[in-house]
C-alpha cells in the first residue's frame, strides 16, 4: 500500500497565509488522518469520521462516513489504482469530469474531491465524496413491490437517463449495483467511470457493460447509441419483476445464447448489419423461435393491478418491457417514448424530465490516448479545481465541466480485446477497433 500521508498533514489549506487563525471547522477541512478500512487504507480529511465499508469493485472501494462539517452522512469512494495504466487513468478522469457536469435529482451528487498528497510529484490517490443512500437496487429487487413503487422507481431511472442523454452522455454500465435508493423511494444513478459522450455511432468492447445487462449490439461488436442504456433498463426492470437476472450468461457467447433462447433469433435485416465473422457465427447457431412476452412474464409474476394512480396494470408493464427488450436497437423504445408510456407517464413532471443538462465536451476525453503521466497531469488539475469550491456549505457552487486540455496527445498502442478471455474469437477482430474500457 503506497504511503498516502503528507509531511505537513495538510492539503487544501496549504496555501493559507502563515500565522492565520484557524477554527476547528477549518482544521477539519484541511488536515488528514489515515485509517484502515477492511483491507484498504483511507487517508481522508478530518471532517470525515466513522468510516465504514459499504462496497467495492474494480473501480474502487466505497465507505460510509459522517461529515462533521455539514452534519450529514456521506459516501467516500477511493479510486482504485488510478494511475496503474492509461485505461484506469482515463476512466478516473472521465468519472471526475462527468460527475461534476451533471446536476439532477436522480443522479448521485458529487460533494467534494480531494487527494491527501499536496504536490503533483507525490500525487497518487483520488477520493470522491458523494451523497449517501440507504441501499442499492440489488436489495430492492428482493422485495415485493406494488405497481406504484415499480413504476415510480422506473420513472426516476428514466429521468436520470434522460438528463444524461440530454447532456450527451451514455452511461454504458447501468446495473442494479449502480443504482441506489432511499427508504422514501428516491432513486439515483451512480458510477460514471465507463460513461462516454454521445455523437455518432461508437464501437464498444463487449466487456464494458456488466455481462448480464449488455445490449445485443454490444455483445456483437456493432456500433451503439443512447438506446444501449434502454436495453440495460429493460434487463433491470425485468429482474425486478422476476426476482432474478433475465439473461445470466456464463460467458460472452452464452450471454447471446440466453438472449436468443428467450427473445428468438433476430431478423435477417439485423443479421445483415453484422460484420462477416460475427454474422457467420450468428447464422450457424440453431434458429430460436423465442417466447411471447406474456409467457416470459406471466401475470403470476406481477403484483395485483393498481386501483389508484390511473390504475396501473401488469399488461402495461409487460408492454413496456417488450418495447425495451428489442434485439435490434432501431426498434427499441427511446427514453423519451418510455417516459410517455402509460405505465410511466402518470408521474411525468416537466421540471424533472425536460430540463436539459449541461453539454459535456467529453468527446475529447474519448478521442485521446494520453500517457499515464499526461492523464495524471489533467487529473491533478481537476482535483485542484475543488480547492476553489466552498465545500463547507450545503449545495456548493461547482464549476461547469471543462474539456481535456488541447495539447498534443501521446498516442499509445491499443490494448488488445483478445487479452480478455470473455471475448469470443468470432468477435475479437470486430471489437479490437474500440480499445478503451
Q: What does it look like?
A:
The protein has 437 residues and is of the alpha+beta class. The chain folds into two domains: 24-132 and 361-389, 2-Layer Sandwich (Phosphorylase Kinase, domain 1); 135-353, Transferase(Phosphotransferase), domain 1 (Orthogonal Bundle), CATH 1.10.510. The protein is 32% helix and 15% strand. It has helices spanning 24-28, 86-101, 137-141, 147-166, 216-219, 227-242, 252-263, 268-271, 276-284, 293-296, 314-324, 335-339, 350-353, 363-367, 372-385, 425-431, and strands spanning 32-37, 40-45, 48-57, 60-67, 72-79, 110-114, 127-131, 135-136, 169-170, 179-181, 187-189, 196-197, 202-203, 223-224. The strands form five sheets. It has a five-stranded antiparallel β-sheet with strand order 3-4-5-7-6, with helices on one face. The radius of gyration is 23 Å and the shape is globular.
Unreliable runs:
6-10, 12-22, 199-209, 406-437
Oligomer: single chain
**Strand residue content:** 5-15%
Number of E strands: 14
